[in-house]
Write a structure and sequence with these properties.
With 341 residues, this protein is an alpha+beta fold. 35% of the residues lie in helices and 17% in strands. It starts with a helix and ends in an 8-residue tail after the last helix.
């Protein structure tokens, strides 16, 4: 925020904006960016703690005013009646007309993670597999139109090779329709996803732990959502998605974890994180399955235990930003076109 103010006050940046009006989108994205956990970058240092604590308290106060966010993230009644859950209890199938049931959404509210099996038609699954094959094989025509990134050792475990393609998902209408249901139910409006095609290949066992990759961590201190589609089976040795059940609930205990976190360590290396680990579940899933997960809760990729490969398509929602968060009044008036929570 402070660097943003500094850049806005810099007359040179205004000249750049006049010369290139398209940069207004960059300014818009920075102003309404949904905050992450990069508190260490806040300068001056003397204001860092006060600013961090203000953000955590105030923005969650605003988030709670959205009725749907309140239902999924801020209602912690299940803390009082917590019981362990089996993987089969959070695994569902779509109802008629490809509708997600209210019981599935209630499980998501309670546990922070649910799974849907056999989610896409054979045709759409094959299209996704084809995209992965083009990434993996270095298809020249494909790479001319699409930029595939290879993550470096500062972005993931050094014992895993990772290829990443950011992509719009208009070519995959079934997964888009599924995403529409999820975002309207959770956020109160349809939010378009950004696709992340990820190929993880293990090159060394045991795998070095890299925070934010293959350990339990949180993405944000605010409500956050990801979908993860797996075209192939993911078993215990193949780095399954892992989640601390119920750790997404934003209550005083949750907020204090961030507020009292003087070392800015927001993953399982912090001993205080253990209070959220009532149950850690590994999502060993069948091919053509999708995970809906609330990633302000503790989650991560389990380390590989054999040399192998995992392919996943993540759907993220950067278009849910501060402007959307502050639009709770208008969102609360909207009726969900699928069903009511």
């Amino acid at each position: 925020m402070f660097s943003l103010v500094k850049d806005i006050l810099n007359p040179i940046n205004w000249i750049k904006l006049i010369l290139n009006p398209k940069k207004i989108k960059v300014l818009y994205d920075r102003i309404f960016y949904y905050p992450g956990l990069n508190f260490k970058n806040i300068k001056p240092f003397i204001l860092r703690e006060k600013y961090k604590n203000f953000l955590i308290s105030f923005l969650n106060y605003i988030g709670k005013k959205n009725h749907r966010l309140n239902y999924f993230f801020y209602s912690d009644e299940n803390d009082k009646k917590y019981k362990k859950v089996e993987l089969k209890e959070i695994t569902f199938s779509l109802e008629k007309n490809k509708i997600i049931s209210n019981s599935a959404f209630e499980a998501l509210k309670n546990y922070g993670i649910i799974i849907f099996e056999n989610i896409l038609s054979d045709n759409e699954r094959e299209k996704i597999i084809e995209t992965f094959n083009k990434i993996n094989n270095g298809d020249k025509d494909f790479l001319k139109k699409n930029k595939v990134l290879e993550l470096n050792k500062h972005e993931k475990s050094e014992d895993v090779l990772v290829k990443l393609l950011y992509s719009e998902l208009d070519y995959y209408p079934e997964i888009i329709n599924f995403s529409k249901q999820v975002t309207e139910k959770i956020f109160g409006k349809v939010i378009d996803p950004v696709g992340q095609f990820l190929i993880h290949r293990s090159i060394k066992i045991p795998e070095t732990i890299f925070p934010g990759d293959n350990n339990l961590h949180v993405d944000r201190f605010l409500p956050n959502l990801k979908l993860a589609y797996f075209p192939f089976d993911v078993e215990n040795d193949y780095a399954p998605f892992t989640y601390a059940v119920g750790s997404h609930k934003i209550n005083n205990r949750y907020k204090n974890f961030f507020i009292n976190n003087e070392n800015y360590i927001f993953d399982e290396r912090n001993e205080n994180s253990k209070t959220f680990f009532k149950q850690i579940i590994k999502a060993n899933i069948k091919k053509n399955s999708i995970i809906i997960t609330l990633t302000n809760g503790f989650h991560g990729r389990a380390p590989f235990t054999i040399k192998s490969e995992r392919r996943s398509l993540f759907l993220t929602y950067p278009k849910f930003n501060l402007l959307t968060l502050f639009s709770f009044w208008s969102l609360n008036k909207k009726k969900n076109i699928y069903s009511e929570a």
